[in-house]
User: Fold these one by one.
Assistant:
Number 1:
Amino acid sequence: MILIIVSVLPVILLMAYFYYRDKFEKEPLNVLMKAFTAGAFSAVPAVVFALIMMSAFSLSGKESAVYQSFIKSFAEAAIPEEISKFALLYIFIWNDKNFNERYDGILYAVFVALGFAFVENILYVFQNGVAVGISRALLAVPLHALAGVIMGYYFALAKFIVPKRASFLIKSVFFAIMAHGVYDFIIFYTDSIVGINPVFASIGYLFIFVFIFYLWRFSLRKVQLHLNNSVFKNRNEREDEEV
């Protein structure tokens, strides 16, 4: 029971947090659950894609720690995972009639990301225990959500700014990959030097928290930008002025 709580609770709390940030027009729960379920199923193509990338960038163990960490973080994790999440987000949400303002893009992308994080978290926590679950609740699960914010921010711009659609769709995937990949790189590289330079490794682990803190600040600014541009917020303000 404890493992289930540790696995599921951070996902639920983050979904609730971003859901209640939407003050002007709440999205239907059935559509949000569709996005969440799509995110959970995105784990399947992500694993297949990761296996292909692992085969393409086969590591012998003799490469430098920097190179190994880069391949593991980007080729084997960030790229397959974020592309898979983006693909399912696009397939299930892009043409949905409820996707009718900018913050919706962020909210649906976060739910897709947390669907993926839910599956990943269950697997990691049940294999490695409560301590890993607590660590992931503070770091890995928020990372997925915040990468979802970044993806959703540009995904929404692509939806509503037609002349730059292709550019924003590319940015939607690219910047989510970068956020995810940099986070994973710090972890993989730090883990690889623990036995060699424990002092530097300690700094690396501290920097992980700094990076997550920065991502929170960056992502919440993106959230606020889209909330400020809500068509429903602006409509309500005009109605208040008319009254």
Number 2:
Amino acid sequence: MVENRVGADSRIGTELIAKASPDGYTFGVVSTTHAIVPSMMKNLPYNAAKDFTAITLAAISPDVLVVNPSVSAKTMAEFVKLAKSRPGKLNYATAGRGSSNTLTGVMLGLDMTNVPYKGASEAVTAVLGGHVEMSITSLATSLRYLQAGSLRALAVTSSKRSALAPDVPTMEESGFPGFATPTWYGVIGPAAIPKPISAKINGEIVKILNMPEIQDRMLKLGLEPSPMTVSEFDAYIRSELVKWGKAVKAAGIEPE
């Protein structure tokens, strides 16, 4: 049974997972937001690191740094040089305060002006229209614009090149060592699920993710299957909490 509990930056659904019985019958899907919200909110009703059992990372969706074709930079190195020559003059569109693309922009360490919009689609539209020079957005949703030449891709934010756009280099290849901020999706359950149960659920999900027909379907949706062991995903979540926490602090965002 699938129960959608949306709203409040995923906090409503995540709280239900935290408070569920650890009997192996209740699990939830979380995304990158799970690692960002704890640094944005003062009084979360759960602890993102302690109140859950990690099951597996399911998939990642690479983001891509795109520019309007009028921008002279053809590579990230050229874009960095351009940004440094015009401190505070380049604008980048984001989906608003605390969004992953806002924080990824902060991680670049360049002096640019953040122009927040009401959502990712509006941000991309602003780049398409030449109102801002750059945005960091989903590769899957921007791919048609890249293929049409309406946008230019400089780098993907995943740790390896995407099968959707194999010619686009990673940020690490472009001079940003260790830089990886893809959108990710994973499965978690409440804390204290017995290890044999979490291992069994992990095994079944991984088996499904490795099915060729499932992988083909996911890739067509812009998702790259990325299964992990329970311990690997637990460590991944903890590292993501630290990474995004630092980005929120660097962005000067005060928790509310």
Number 3:
Amino acid sequence: IIGLAVFNKPANCFDAVQNGTETGIDCGGGCELVCREEVRDVVVWWERPFRVTNGVYSTLAYFENQNLDSALQEVKYEFRLYNYENVLVSEPIVGSTFIEPNKRSAVFESGIRTGAEEAYTAFFKISSVQEWKSVDQDFSYNLFEIGESQLTNQDLSPRLEAVITNKSFETFDDVPVIAVLYNQKGNAVAASQTYIDRIGQGKTQRAYFSWPEPFNEVISRIEIIPRVSPFEVS
């Protein structure tokens, strides 16, 4: 009698089989990849162009990830700017970004040239397949405390100073910080982005923003959005 040895391979997240604690094929359970049916889509609340000066615009898309511990490491996106007649006024702007868990956030593009045309509306779409990954729940909560912002020189070239404190137990490098300014009706009328080179645990840094021309409306609220990828931690 010849004995046959049977070897059972341990379950893993890369064998194209639903096994172990997985809730789908190579996703869910103990896998880094989250099953697509277990997450909510990113909600884009609004997208808008902002005039910087003649023929130059910036644009911003404001979105929300409602998943508590799931994030996107990289998504590719596209902006398109249109005039009053719904005619494209610049080349499509393409880029990539991460999307944090359980947060409202934004993606910003600047230096968009429209020539003699005025940009009236913006269209934003995520153009790549979304691969959701599980992340540490510490990133699902506010990592920063935003102090009172100071907006000065509004009649000539506005300048904004924001105080940001790192409340987490991590040190972050090259942190993009977006400022969104709203009028009395709650509509966004200006936006900008800068970077903090490094902000350590418990440390406070100042972020500065500026615009070359005055705003045409009274600013009643300022939102400061520091962005940190849970996949890139020092």
